[in-house]
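Hi R.,

As promised on Friday, here is the backbone we talked about, encoded as structure tokens. Could you run it through your design pipeline when you get a chance and send me back a sequence?
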């Protein structure tokens, strides 16, 4: 083999390894973002909790005002209308989106219910 061919092969192998490492780091960051919990308040008074990205609440829970003025918490999968998947939110109806702390009582309840 010629010296130039060997050097070119080594460069290609190193580039392949670097590309793999960068892809892995990007994948880890992407998944880290999707593990965060958010509270999403919409203009009808409903508040959804879960993983929020692309205007969708994944693994959603809902807190609603009841007739007595109190609050009730339910996984959306336990609601009477039995949604099959995630909740797509109309971005025009969103009032507030906020990230929840890991020690939030809501986050703890969701994690314990899984």
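Update: got your reply. Pasting your designed sequence below so it's all in one thread:
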């Amino acid at each position: 083999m010629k010296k130039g061919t060997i050097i070119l092969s080594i460069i290609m192998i190193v580039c392949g390894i670097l590309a793999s490492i960068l892809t892995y780091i990007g994948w880890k960051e992407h998944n880290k973002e999707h593990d965060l919990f958010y509270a999403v308040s919409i203009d009808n008074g409903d508040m959804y909790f879960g993983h929020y990205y692309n205007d969708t609440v994944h693994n959603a829970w809902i807190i609603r005002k009841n007739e007595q003025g109190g609050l009730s918490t339910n996984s959306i999968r336990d609601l009477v209308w039995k949604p099959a998947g995630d909740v797509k939110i109309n971005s025009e109806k969103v009032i507030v989106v906020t990230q929840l702390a890991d020690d939030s009582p809501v986050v703890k309840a969701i994690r314990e219910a899984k």
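One thing I noticed while checking it: The first strand starts at residue 38 and ends at 42.

Thanks again,
M.
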